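Researcher: Re-running this chain for the archive, since the previous output was lost when a drive failed. Same request as before.
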Amino acid sequence: MAITLNQLLKKSYHGELKCVAGHKGLDKEILGVNVVDNPEIVSWLYGGELILSTGYVTKNNPSMLNTLVNDLHRKGCVGLGFKVKRYFEKIPDIIISEGNKYGFPILEISYEMRMSDISRFVYTNLFSDEMSENEKTHLVYQQVTKSVLSGADIEQALFNIADVINNPLFLLDEDTNLIAYENVADNDVNLMNFVKLTYGYSVFNEIQKNDIIDFYKETHFKAHSVQVSKNGKSIDMAILPIEMQKQLFGFLAIPQTVACLNYTDYRILENVVSIIGIHLLQDRLMSENIKHSQNNFVSNVLLSNSDSEDMIKYYCDIYGFDYTKKRMCVNIDIDDFLNMTYDKRSAIQNNMIRVKNNVSRDCNVNCYYANFRNNFLIYCLFSKNVSDIDIVSDVRKVTKALQKQLDAAEYKYHISISTVGDSIAHISTSFKQSLDALPLGMKLYPNKKSYMYQDMLVYNLMHSSMNYEQIYGIYSSTVKILDEYDKENNTEFLITLESYIDNFKNVSKSADVLHLHRNTMLYRMEKIKDILMMDLDDSEVVLNIQMGIHAKKIIDAFYK
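Model: Regenerated C-alpha coordinates:
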Protein backbone atom coordinates (compact mmCIF):
# COMPACT_ATOMS: atom_id res chain seq x y z
CA MET A 1 0.00 0.00 0.00
CA ALA A 2 1.63 3.22 -1.19
CA ILE A 3 1.67 6.16 1.21
CA THR A 4 1.79 9.88 0.58
CA LEU A 5 4.34 12.36 1.88
CA ASN A 6 1.57 13.75 4.11
CA GLN A 7 1.14 10.34 5.74
CA LEU A 8 4.89 10.04 6.23
CA LEU A 9 5.00 13.44 7.97
CA LYS A 10 2.20 12.35 10.31
CA LYS A 11 4.49 9.60 11.58
CA SER A 12 7.09 12.08 12.73
CA TYR A 13 6.88 14.56 15.60
CA HIS A 14 7.60 18.28 15.02
CA GLY A 15 11.29 18.89 14.45
CA GLU A 16 12.23 15.35 13.34
CA LEU A 17 10.83 15.50 9.83
CA LYS A 18 9.03 18.52 8.48
CA CYS A 19 8.19 20.06 5.13
CA VAL A 20 9.92 23.41 4.58
CA ALA A 21 9.09 24.03 0.90
CA GLY A 22 6.94 22.74 -1.98
CA HIS A 23 3.90 22.01 0.16
CA LYS A 24 1.67 21.67 -2.91
CA GLY A 25 3.17 18.27 -3.70
CA LEU A 26 2.57 16.57 -0.35
CA ASP A 27 -0.27 14.41 -1.71
CA LYS A 28 2.10 12.52 -4.03
CA GLU A 29 2.45 8.78 -3.38
CA ILE A 30 5.91 7.40 -2.53
CA LEU A 31 6.84 4.37 -4.66
CA GLY A 32 10.37 3.97 -3.33
CA VAL A 33 13.24 5.55 -1.41
CA ASN A 34 16.71 6.35 -2.72
CA VAL A 35 19.77 8.09 -1.30
CA VAL A 36 21.86 10.70 -3.13
CA ASP A 37 25.34 9.23 -2.68
CA ASN A 38 27.04 10.22 -5.93
CA PRO A 39 26.67 12.87 -8.65
CA GLU A 40 25.28 10.37 -11.18
CA ILE A 41 22.24 9.40 -9.06
CA VAL A 42 19.72 11.31 -11.17
CA SER A 43 20.36 9.18 -14.26
CA TRP A 44 19.49 6.02 -12.31
CA LEU A 45 16.09 7.14 -11.10
CA TYR A 46 12.76 5.83 -12.47
CA GLY A 47 10.27 8.25 -10.86
CA GLY A 48 8.05 8.08 -7.80
CA GLU A 49 11.01 7.95 -5.38
CA LEU A 50 11.55 10.01 -2.25
CA ILE A 51 15.20 11.08 -2.41
CA LEU A 52 17.21 11.37 0.82
CA SER A 53 20.47 13.31 1.17
CA THR A 54 22.95 14.15 3.92
CA GLY A 55 24.37 16.93 1.72
CA TYR A 56 27.70 15.13 1.30
CA VAL A 57 27.58 14.95 -2.51
CA THR A 58 26.32 18.50 -3.00
CA LYS A 59 28.91 19.85 -0.57
CA ASN A 60 31.67 18.39 -2.73
CA ASN A 61 29.84 19.33 -5.94
CA PRO A 62 28.41 22.84 -5.28
CA SER A 63 27.19 23.27 -8.87
CA MET A 64 24.84 20.31 -8.29
CA LEU A 65 22.85 22.43 -5.80
CA ASN A 66 21.60 24.70 -8.58
CA THR A 67 20.11 21.89 -10.68
CA LEU A 68 19.29 19.12 -8.20
CA VAL A 69 15.64 19.99 -7.48
CA ASN A 70 14.86 20.66 -11.17
CA ASP A 71 16.50 17.35 -12.18
CA LEU A 72 14.60 15.37 -9.54
CA HIS A 73 11.34 17.11 -10.48
CA ARG A 74 11.82 16.26 -14.18
CA LYS A 75 12.53 12.63 -13.30
CA GLY A 76 9.15 12.42 -11.53
CA CYS A 77 10.51 12.04 -8.00
CA VAL A 78 8.05 12.95 -5.23
CA GLY A 79 10.32 14.92 -2.89
CA LEU A 80 13.76 15.50 -1.38
CA GLY A 81 14.61 14.81 2.27
CA PHE A 82 17.66 16.82 3.37
CA LYS A 83 19.47 15.98 6.62
CA VAL A 84 20.71 19.07 8.47
CA LYS A 85 23.56 19.75 10.93
CA ARG A 86 25.86 17.23 9.30
CA TYR A 87 27.37 18.73 6.16
CA PHE A 88 25.02 21.71 6.03
CA GLU A 89 23.81 23.61 9.13
CA LYS A 90 20.55 24.32 7.29
CA ILE A 91 19.01 23.46 3.92
CA PRO A 92 20.58 25.73 1.28
CA ASP A 93 18.35 28.61 0.15
CA ILE A 94 18.52 27.50 -3.50
CA ILE A 95 16.98 24.13 -2.57
CA ILE A 96 14.14 25.89 -0.70
CA SER A 97 13.58 28.36 -3.53
CA GLU A 98 13.51 25.67 -6.24
CA GLY A 99 11.21 23.48 -4.16
CA ASN A 100 8.65 26.27 -3.90
CA LYS A 101 9.09 27.12 -7.59
CA TYR A 102 8.19 23.61 -8.78
CA GLY A 103 5.83 22.63 -5.94
CA PHE A 104 8.39 19.93 -5.15
CA PRO A 105 8.36 19.00 -1.42
CA ILE A 106 11.59 19.61 0.50
CA LEU A 107 11.66 17.74 3.82
CA GLU A 108 14.05 18.76 6.59
CA ILE A 109 15.41 15.70 8.41
CA SER A 110 16.73 16.41 11.90
CA TYR A 111 20.26 15.33 12.80
CA GLU A 112 18.88 12.80 15.31
CA MET A 113 16.56 11.00 12.86
CA ARG A 114 17.91 7.97 11.01
CA MET A 115 17.21 7.84 7.27
CA SER A 116 16.83 4.06 7.60
CA ASP A 117 13.71 4.66 9.72
CA ILE A 118 12.14 6.56 6.81
CA SER A 119 13.01 3.78 4.36
CA ARG A 120 11.72 1.06 6.68
CA PHE A 121 8.38 2.80 7.21
CA VAL A 122 7.87 3.40 3.47
CA TYR A 123 8.77 -0.14 2.39
CA THR A 124 6.78 -1.77 5.20
CA ASN A 125 3.69 0.01 3.87
CA LEU A 126 4.54 -0.72 0.23
CA PHE A 127 4.87 -4.46 0.77
CA SER A 128 2.08 -4.93 3.31
CA ASP A 129 -0.56 -5.67 0.65
CA GLU A 130 1.64 -8.35 -0.90
CA MET A 131 2.07 -10.23 2.36
CA SER A 132 -0.20 -13.17 2.99
CA GLU A 133 -2.42 -13.29 6.04
CA ASN A 134 -0.12 -15.86 7.67
CA GLU A 135 2.97 -13.76 6.89
CA LYS A 136 1.39 -10.68 8.48
CA THR A 137 0.38 -12.62 11.58
CA HIS A 138 3.81 -14.20 11.87
CA LEU A 139 5.59 -10.84 11.43
CA VAL A 140 3.58 -9.12 14.17
CA TYR A 141 3.96 -12.15 16.45
CA GLN A 142 7.74 -11.99 16.00
CA GLN A 143 7.87 -8.24 16.65
CA VAL A 144 5.76 -8.44 19.80
CA THR A 145 7.62 -11.51 21.10
CA LYS A 146 10.97 -9.79 20.59
CA SER A 147 9.74 -6.64 22.39
CA VAL A 148 8.38 -8.48 25.42
CA LEU A 149 11.02 -11.19 25.85
CA SER A 150 13.93 -8.78 25.37
CA GLY A 151 12.67 -6.71 28.30
CA ALA A 152 11.77 -3.74 26.10
CA ASP A 153 8.98 -1.38 27.07
CA ILE A 154 5.53 -2.92 26.59
CA GLU A 155 4.58 0.25 24.73
CA GLN A 156 6.83 -0.81 21.84
CA ALA A 157 4.91 -4.08 21.55
CA LEU A 158 1.59 -2.23 21.63
CA PHE A 159 2.87 0.17 18.97
CA ASN A 160 3.65 -2.74 16.64
CA ILE A 161 0.16 -4.17 17.12
CA ALA A 162 -1.68 -0.85 16.75
CA ASP A 163 0.33 0.01 13.65
CA VAL A 164 -0.77 -3.20 11.89
CA ILE A 165 -4.45 -3.15 12.85
CA ASN A 166 -4.50 0.65 12.35
CA ASN A 167 -6.54 1.38 15.46
CA PRO A 168 -5.76 2.63 18.98
CA LEU A 169 -5.15 0.05 21.67
CA PHE A 170 -5.68 -0.14 25.45
CA LEU A 171 -3.89 -2.62 27.71
CA LEU A 172 -6.07 -3.19 30.78
CA ASP A 173 -5.67 -5.26 33.93
CA GLU A 174 -8.25 -7.82 35.05
CA ASP A 175 -10.40 -5.03 36.54
CA THR A 176 -10.24 -3.01 33.27
CA ASN A 177 -7.84 -0.46 34.82
CA LEU A 178 -5.56 1.23 32.28
CA ILE A 179 -1.97 -0.10 32.18
CA ALA A 180 -0.84 1.29 28.81
CA TYR A 181 -2.33 3.05 25.81
CA GLU A 182 -1.20 3.34 22.20
CA ASN A 183 -2.67 5.70 19.64
CA VAL A 184 -2.25 5.73 15.84
CA ALA A 185 -1.58 8.70 13.59
CA ASP A 186 -4.76 8.22 11.55
CA ASN A 187 -7.06 8.40 14.58
CA ASP A 188 -8.97 11.69 14.62
CA VAL A 189 -11.28 10.74 17.48
CA ASN A 190 -10.54 12.15 20.94
CA LEU A 191 -11.02 8.99 23.00
CA MET A 192 -11.13 10.96 26.25
CA ASN A 193 -14.60 12.04 25.13
CA PHE A 194 -15.72 8.42 25.52
CA VAL A 195 -13.56 6.72 28.16
CA LYS A 196 -11.40 7.61 31.17
CA LEU A 197 -7.73 7.59 30.13
CA THR A 198 -6.08 7.74 33.55
CA TYR A 199 -3.48 5.14 34.50
CA GLY A 200 -4.63 2.85 37.28
CA TYR A 201 -8.34 3.58 36.72
CA SER A 202 -10.95 1.73 34.69
CA VAL A 203 -11.47 3.12 31.21
CA PHE A 204 -15.16 2.18 31.51
CA ASN A 205 -17.93 3.34 33.80
CA GLU A 206 -18.99 0.99 36.59
CA ILE A 207 -21.85 -0.60 34.63
CA GLN A 208 -19.76 -1.27 31.51
CA LYS A 209 -16.89 -2.60 33.61
CA ASN A 210 -19.10 -5.06 35.50
CA ASP A 211 -20.84 -6.18 32.29
CA ILE A 212 -17.53 -7.02 30.62
CA ILE A 213 -16.11 -8.87 33.64
CA ASP A 214 -19.36 -10.75 34.32
CA PHE A 215 -19.72 -11.73 30.66
CA TYR A 216 -16.15 -13.08 30.65
CA LYS A 217 -16.81 -15.15 33.80
CA GLU A 218 -19.94 -16.62 32.20
CA THR A 219 -18.60 -17.34 28.71
CA HIS A 220 -14.79 -17.07 28.72
CA PHE A 221 -15.17 -15.31 25.38
CA LYS A 222 -12.24 -15.09 22.98
CA ALA A 223 -13.44 -11.78 21.57
CA HIS A 224 -16.28 -9.50 22.54
CA SER A 225 -17.66 -6.24 21.18
CA VAL A 226 -19.12 -3.36 23.18
CA GLN A 227 -20.46 0.02 22.20
CA VAL A 228 -19.36 3.03 24.25
CA SER A 229 -21.65 6.05 23.99
CA LYS A 230 -21.50 9.59 25.30
CA ASN A 231 -23.36 12.78 24.42
CA GLY A 232 -25.22 11.10 21.56
CA LYS A 233 -22.06 9.71 19.91
CA SER A 234 -20.70 6.18 20.09
CA ILE A 235 -17.71 4.04 19.16
CA ASP A 236 -17.41 0.27 18.79
CA MET A 237 -14.75 -1.40 20.89
CA ALA A 238 -13.39 -4.94 20.57
CA ILE A 239 -12.40 -6.66 23.84
CA LEU A 240 -10.01 -9.63 24.00
CA PRO A 241 -9.18 -11.33 27.32
CA ILE A 242 -5.52 -11.96 28.21
CA GLU A 243 -5.38 -15.30 29.97
CA MET A 244 -2.81 -17.96 30.74
CA GLN A 245 -3.67 -21.41 32.08
CA LYS A 246 -7.27 -20.29 32.54
CA GLN A 247 -6.20 -17.36 34.72
CA LEU A 248 -7.28 -13.87 33.63
CA PHE A 249 -4.50 -11.29 33.58
CA GLY A 250 -6.24 -8.46 31.76
CA PHE A 251 -7.80 -7.32 28.48
CA LEU A 252 -6.85 -5.78 25.18
CA ALA A 253 -9.43 -3.17 24.17
CA ILE A 254 -9.45 -1.82 20.61
CA PRO A 255 -11.58 1.25 19.80
CA GLN A 256 -12.45 0.87 16.12
CA THR A 257 -12.15 4.57 15.35
CA VAL A 258 -10.05 4.31 12.17
CA ALA A 259 -11.15 1.03 10.59
CA CYS A 260 -13.35 -1.93 11.43
CA LEU A 261 -11.32 -4.95 12.48
CA ASN A 262 -11.31 -7.72 9.88
CA TYR A 263 -10.67 -11.46 10.13
CA THR A 264 -6.89 -11.02 9.77
CA ASP A 265 -6.83 -8.38 12.51
CA TYR A 266 -8.62 -10.71 14.93
CA ARG A 267 -6.19 -13.52 14.10
CA ILE A 268 -3.26 -11.23 14.80
CA LEU A 269 -4.77 -10.11 18.12
CA GLU A 270 -5.60 -13.64 19.24
CA ASN A 271 -2.00 -14.68 18.53
CA VAL A 272 -0.35 -11.86 20.48
CA VAL A 273 -2.49 -11.81 23.63
CA SER A 274 -0.56 -14.76 25.07
CA ILE A 275 2.71 -12.85 24.65
CA ILE A 276 1.18 -9.80 26.32
CA GLY A 277 0.11 -12.18 29.09
CA ILE A 278 3.76 -13.13 29.66
CA HIS A 279 4.57 -9.45 30.17
CA LEU A 280 1.75 -9.06 32.70
CA LEU A 281 2.89 -12.22 34.49
CA GLN A 282 6.45 -10.85 34.67
CA ASP A 283 5.10 -7.63 36.13
CA ARG A 284 3.07 -9.46 38.70
CA LEU A 285 6.01 -11.60 39.79
CA MET A 286 8.39 -8.65 39.94
CA SER A 287 5.81 -6.29 41.51
CA GLU A 288 6.53 -3.55 39.02
CA ASN A 289 5.12 -2.23 35.79
CA ILE A 290 8.14 -0.59 34.17
CA LYS A 291 11.68 -1.95 34.01
CA HIS A 292 13.83 1.02 33.07
CA SER A 293 16.11 2.41 35.79
CA GLN A 294 14.79 5.95 35.38
CA ASN A 295 11.28 4.73 36.12
CA ASN A 296 12.56 2.53 38.95
CA PHE A 297 14.02 5.69 40.51
CA VAL A 298 10.56 7.22 40.29
CA SER A 299 8.88 4.11 41.71
CA ASN A 300 11.36 3.36 44.48
CA VAL A 301 12.29 6.90 45.49
CA LEU A 302 9.87 9.57 44.28
CA LEU A 303 6.67 7.56 44.73
CA SER A 304 7.87 5.43 47.63
CA ASN A 305 5.81 5.19 50.81
CA SER A 306 8.86 4.02 52.77
CA ASP A 307 9.66 5.87 55.99
CA SER A 308 13.18 4.41 56.02
CA GLU A 309 15.80 6.99 55.06
CA ASP A 310 18.34 4.20 54.74
CA MET A 311 16.18 2.48 52.13
CA ILE A 312 15.78 5.73 50.14
CA LYS A 313 19.55 6.33 50.31
CA TYR A 314 20.12 2.76 49.14
CA TYR A 315 17.97 3.29 46.04
CA CYS A 316 19.51 6.72 45.40
CA ASP A 317 22.94 5.09 45.34
CA ILE A 318 21.71 2.42 42.93
CA TYR A 319 20.29 4.98 40.50
CA GLY A 320 23.12 7.50 40.83
CA PHE A 321 21.20 10.28 42.60
CA ASP A 322 23.33 12.37 44.99
CA TYR A 323 21.07 12.76 48.03
CA THR A 324 23.69 14.84 49.89
CA LYS A 325 23.06 17.88 47.67
CA LYS A 326 20.56 20.69 47.91
CA ARG A 327 18.03 20.41 45.11
CA MET A 328 15.07 21.74 43.18
CA CYS A 329 12.86 19.58 40.96
CA VAL A 330 12.01 20.98 37.52
CA ASN A 331 9.09 19.08 35.99
CA ILE A 332 8.45 19.42 32.23
CA ASP A 333 4.98 18.29 31.20
CA ILE A 334 4.62 17.74 27.42
CA ASP A 335 1.04 18.44 26.33
CA ASP A 336 -0.89 15.42 25.02
CA PHE A 337 2.24 13.23 25.34
CA LEU A 338 0.39 10.09 26.41
CA ASN A 339 -1.99 10.41 23.45
CA MET A 340 0.88 10.32 20.94
CA THR A 341 2.05 7.21 19.11
CA TYR A 342 5.00 5.24 20.45
CA ASP A 343 7.47 6.48 17.81
CA LYS A 344 6.66 10.12 18.59
CA ARG A 345 6.94 9.52 22.33
CA SER A 346 10.29 7.78 21.84
CA ALA A 347 11.60 10.67 19.73
CA ILE A 348 10.62 13.16 22.45
CA GLN A 349 12.13 11.00 25.21
CA ASN A 350 15.44 10.80 23.33
CA ASN A 351 15.43 14.52 22.61
CA MET A 352 14.65 15.43 26.23
CA ILE A 353 17.89 13.74 27.35
CA ARG A 354 19.80 15.91 24.87
CA VAL A 355 17.90 18.98 26.10
CA LYS A 356 18.89 18.18 29.69
CA ASN A 357 22.55 17.73 28.71
CA ASN A 358 22.59 21.00 26.75
CA VAL A 359 21.00 22.99 29.56
CA SER A 360 23.25 21.42 32.22
CA ARG A 361 26.32 22.38 30.18
CA ASP A 362 25.16 25.87 29.18
CA CYS A 363 24.02 26.84 32.69
CA ASN A 364 26.84 25.00 34.49
CA VAL A 365 24.36 23.23 36.77
CA ASN A 366 24.59 19.58 37.83
CA CYS A 367 21.34 17.91 36.64
CA TYR A 368 19.81 14.49 37.28
CA TYR A 369 17.22 13.30 34.75
CA ALA A 370 14.27 10.92 35.10
CA ASN A 371 11.12 10.32 33.06
CA PHE A 372 7.75 9.16 34.37
CA ARG A 373 4.93 9.02 31.82
CA ASN A 374 4.41 12.60 30.61
CA ASN A 375 6.65 14.09 33.35
CA PHE A 376 10.25 14.80 32.36
CA LEU A 377 12.10 15.54 35.59
CA ILE A 378 15.33 17.48 35.94
CA TYR A 379 16.71 17.66 39.48
CA CYS A 380 19.10 20.61 39.76
CA LEU A 381 21.71 19.70 42.39
CA PHE A 382 23.84 22.14 44.38
CA SER A 383 26.47 22.08 47.12
CA LYS A 384 25.06 22.68 50.61
CA ASN A 385 27.08 25.88 50.97
CA VAL A 386 25.17 27.53 48.10
CA SER A 387 22.45 29.86 49.42
CA ASP A 388 18.78 29.21 48.66
CA ILE A 389 18.55 32.60 46.93
CA ASP A 390 21.40 31.70 44.56
CA ILE A 391 19.87 28.28 43.90
CA VAL A 392 16.50 29.79 42.95
CA SER A 393 18.30 32.28 40.70
CA ASP A 394 20.24 29.50 38.93
CA VAL A 395 17.12 27.35 38.50
CA ARG A 396 15.29 30.29 36.94
CA LYS A 397 18.15 30.46 34.41
CA VAL A 398 17.82 26.71 33.81
CA THR A 399 14.09 27.14 33.24
CA LYS A 400 14.65 29.92 30.69
CA ALA A 401 17.22 27.77 28.88
CA LEU A 402 14.79 24.85 28.87
CA GLN A 403 12.02 27.01 27.43
CA LYS A 404 14.33 28.18 24.65
CA GLN A 405 15.19 24.59 23.68
CA LEU A 406 11.61 23.35 23.95
CA ASP A 407 10.31 26.27 21.87
CA ALA A 408 12.93 25.50 19.22
CA ALA A 409 11.69 21.89 19.11
CA GLU A 410 8.12 23.22 18.74
CA TYR A 411 6.88 21.30 21.78
CA LYS A 412 3.78 22.38 23.65
CA TYR A 413 4.66 22.20 27.32
CA HIS A 414 4.37 23.52 30.87
CA ILE A 415 7.10 23.61 33.51
CA SER A 416 6.64 23.47 37.28
CA ILE A 417 9.38 23.94 39.88
CA SER A 418 9.58 22.79 43.50
CA THR A 419 11.01 24.54 46.54
CA VAL A 420 14.66 24.22 47.64
CA GLY A 421 15.48 21.43 50.07
CA ASP A 422 18.20 19.05 51.22
CA SER A 423 16.47 16.48 53.41
CA ILE A 424 15.95 12.89 52.30
CA ALA A 425 12.16 13.37 52.52
CA HIS A 426 12.41 16.42 50.24
CA ILE A 427 13.51 14.24 47.30
CA SER A 428 9.99 12.85 46.91
CA THR A 429 8.28 15.95 48.34
CA SER A 430 9.83 18.12 45.63
CA PHE A 431 8.42 15.85 42.92
CA LYS A 432 4.96 16.01 44.48
CA GLN A 433 5.24 19.81 44.77
CA SER A 434 5.97 20.00 41.05
CA LEU A 435 2.91 17.86 40.33
CA ASP A 436 0.71 20.08 42.53
CA ALA A 437 2.01 23.25 40.93
CA LEU A 438 1.09 22.19 37.37
CA PRO A 439 -2.73 22.28 37.50
CA LEU A 440 -2.68 25.33 39.79
CA GLY A 441 -0.32 27.25 37.54
CA MET A 442 -2.16 26.33 34.35
CA LYS A 443 -5.44 27.55 35.85
CA LEU A 444 -4.16 30.66 37.63
CA TYR A 445 -1.70 31.79 34.97
CA PRO A 446 -3.00 30.50 31.60
CA ASN A 447 -0.63 32.76 29.65
CA LYS A 448 2.50 31.49 31.39
CA LYS A 449 4.50 28.34 30.67
CA SER A 450 6.40 27.96 33.95
CA TYR A 451 5.28 28.04 37.58
CA MET A 452 7.16 27.97 40.88
CA TYR A 453 5.54 26.10 43.77
CA GLN A 454 6.79 28.68 46.29
CA ASP A 455 4.81 31.38 44.45
CA MET A 456 1.61 29.37 44.92
CA LEU A 457 1.88 28.12 48.50
CA VAL A 458 -1.19 30.05 49.68
CA TYR A 459 -3.21 29.06 46.60
CA ASN A 460 -2.33 25.39 47.11
CA LEU A 461 -3.21 25.52 50.82
CA MET A 462 -6.57 27.17 50.19
CA HIS A 463 -7.52 25.07 47.16
CA SER A 464 -6.56 21.75 48.77
CA SER A 465 -8.00 22.34 52.25
CA MET A 466 -11.07 24.55 51.73
CA ASN A 467 -14.36 24.08 49.92
CA TYR A 468 -16.01 26.70 47.73
CA GLU A 469 -18.14 28.16 50.52
CA GLN A 470 -15.09 28.73 52.75
CA ILE A 471 -13.07 30.31 49.93
CA TYR A 472 -16.00 32.49 48.92
CA GLY A 473 -16.44 33.55 52.55
CA ILE A 474 -12.89 34.92 52.65
CA TYR A 475 -13.44 36.79 49.37
CA SER A 476 -16.82 38.11 50.45
CA SER A 477 -15.55 39.49 53.79
CA THR A 478 -12.54 41.27 52.30
CA VAL A 479 -12.35 42.43 48.67
CA LYS A 480 -15.74 41.55 47.17
CA ILE A 481 -17.04 45.11 47.68
CA LEU A 482 -14.02 46.53 45.83
CA ASP A 483 -14.29 43.94 43.06
CA GLU A 484 -17.98 44.76 42.51
CA TYR A 485 -17.22 48.50 42.50
CA ASP A 486 -14.66 47.89 39.71
CA LYS A 487 -17.22 45.99 37.63
CA GLU A 488 -19.90 48.63 38.07
CA ASN A 489 -17.64 51.66 37.47
CA ASN A 490 -15.06 50.22 35.06
CA THR A 491 -12.21 50.99 37.46
CA GLU A 492 -9.09 49.00 38.44
CA PHE A 493 -8.97 49.54 42.16
CA LEU A 494 -8.47 45.89 43.10
CA ILE A 495 -5.44 45.57 40.79
CA THR A 496 -4.14 48.84 42.25
CA LEU A 497 -4.53 47.53 45.80
CA GLU A 498 -2.77 44.26 44.95
CA SER A 499 0.19 46.12 43.45
CA TYR A 500 0.32 48.44 46.48
CA ILE A 501 0.55 45.46 48.87
CA ASP A 502 3.00 43.52 46.62
CA ASN A 503 5.32 46.53 46.62
CA PHE A 504 5.27 46.84 50.43
CA LYS A 505 2.90 49.84 50.34
CA ASN A 506 5.42 51.93 48.40
CA VAL A 507 3.28 54.39 46.42
CA SER A 508 6.01 55.47 43.97
CA LYS A 509 7.08 51.92 43.12
CA SER A 510 3.46 50.77 42.73
CA ALA A 511 2.77 53.72 40.42
CA ASP A 512 5.77 52.76 38.27
CA VAL A 513 4.62 49.13 38.02
CA LEU A 514 1.12 50.22 36.96
CA HIS A 515 2.44 53.00 34.69
CA LEU A 516 0.56 55.65 36.65
CA HIS A 517 1.43 59.16 37.80
CA ARG A 518 2.17 59.21 41.52
CA ASN A 519 -0.72 61.59 42.18
CA THR A 520 -3.10 59.21 40.37
CA MET A 521 -1.86 56.40 42.59
CA LEU A 522 -2.45 58.49 45.72
CA TYR A 523 -5.97 59.35 44.53
CA ARG A 524 -6.77 55.70 43.91
CA MET A 525 -5.54 54.65 47.32
CA GLU A 526 -7.76 57.23 49.04
CA LYS A 527 -10.77 55.95 47.08
CA ILE A 528 -9.90 52.36 47.96
CA LYS A 529 -9.74 53.19 51.68
CA ASP A 530 -13.12 54.90 51.45
CA ILE A 531 -14.74 51.90 49.71
CA LEU A 532 -13.21 49.22 51.94
CA MET A 533 -13.45 51.20 55.18
CA MET A 534 -10.42 49.25 56.44
CA ASP A 535 -7.19 50.38 58.10
CA LEU A 536 -4.42 49.52 55.62
CA ASP A 537 -1.80 50.34 58.24
CA ASP A 538 -2.96 47.34 60.27
CA SER A 539 -0.84 44.28 59.27
CA GLU A 540 -3.66 41.87 60.16
CA VAL A 541 -6.05 43.75 57.86
CA VAL A 542 -3.50 43.67 55.03
CA LEU A 543 -3.02 39.91 55.53
CA ASN A 544 -6.79 39.36 55.34
CA ILE A 545 -6.96 41.42 52.14
CA GLN A 546 -4.15 39.35 50.61
CA MET A 547 -6.11 36.20 51.46
CA GLY A 548 -9.19 37.75 49.84
CA ILE A 549 -7.28 38.50 46.64
CA HIS A 550 -6.01 34.90 46.56
CA ALA A 551 -9.54 33.64 47.15
CA LYS A 552 -10.87 35.69 44.22
CA LYS A 553 -8.22 34.25 41.89
CA ILE A 554 -9.07 30.69 42.95
CA ILE A 555 -12.79 31.36 42.38
CA ASP A 556 -12.09 32.84 38.93
CA ALA A 557 -9.81 29.95 37.95
CA PHE A 558 -11.68 26.94 39.32
CA TYR A 559 -15.31 27.88 39.93
CA LYS A 560 -16.33 29.93 36.90
